[in-house]
Amino acid sequence: MIDTALNPESFAAMPVAEKISAKVIERVSLYRQLLQRQRKEGKTHFFSRQLARLSKNTSAQVRRDIMLIGFTGTTNRGYDIDDFIEHIARFIDGEKAMNVAIVGVGNLGRAIISYYGRDPKLRIVAGFDTEPDRTDRVILGCQCHHISALETVVREKDISIAIITVPESAAQAVVKRLCSAGVPGILNFAPVKLWVPDHVYIEDIFLGIALDKVAFYTQSRRAKPGAAQ
Asked: Which of 107, 150, 147, 144 lies closest to 124, judged by CA?
């Protein structure tokens, strides 16, 4: 979170990552997805009010986000979609592609490989599992290894991000090994909070909690007077 009490000079001297909140990254990532769809439909430019409507946001917030990530461009015809998508890619993904590993090649792991496996900037280059039918073979274009080879493959493939889809009971031990092997970023789908050292960034995706929220707000809306029965 940005400290609004900072003076402009102090704010300008801060590293870029410290100026950007997680909410900004979430919104900018959504903008990219929405504009990729617009591009497929043949659109070439967009106005902030159009992107605000698509993202269920305000035009002012969209313009602040665009300015915060350093994108500039003429707004006479609207912002150029190709230029903006390329700018977001450089801003979020960096100039250099990052290699990704997935630990746990069950149903969820395979779905993630299928969906994200062809991303040119975040490449899923290795999978790990303990089951014989999921190791020493290629699954959906991804070479999968036994978990015993984790440290060796992480170093050989220069893996920067690991996606965890293992059972809760195995998650902390897996993450400890990944951190020791030098992986600085982890996306965790196991239903448990995991400890990582300060130099490692971890994002937890709790599907059960998300479903509980949907169930709660769904039933609360059904209970309102006048709701459709």
From this structure: 144
Long-range contacts formed by 84-91: CB under 8 A, 24+ apart: 84/31, 84/35, 84/46, 85/32, 85/35, 85/36, 85/39, 88/28, 88/29, 88/31, 88/32, 89/32, 89/121, 91/28
- Tokens describing residue 56: 């269920």
Instruction: Supply the CATH number for residue 139's domain.
Output: 3.40.50.720
pLDDT score for 226:
60
pTM for the model = 0.75
Strand partners, 128: 103, 145
CA–CA gap between residue 188 and residue 186 (Å, rounded): 6
- Residue 220 in any domain: the answer is no
pLDDT, tens digit, 9 for 90 and up, residues 182-216: 999 999 999 999 999 999 999 999 988 889 989 98
Question: Which residues span the domain enclosing 76?
Answer: 8-92
What strands, in cross-sheet order, belong to the sheet with 185-188? 137-139, 142-146, 122-129, 98-103, 159-164, 185-188, 201-204
Q: Look up tokens 């969820």; give the residue.
A: 108
* φ, ψ of residue 60 in degrees (nearest 5): -65, -40
Would residue 30 count as lying in a domain? yes
Q: Which residues contact 9 (CB under 8 A, 6 or more apart)?
A: none
Residue bearing tokens 């440290």:
151
Rounded to whole angstroms, how far apart are CA atoms 62 and 53? Answer: 10
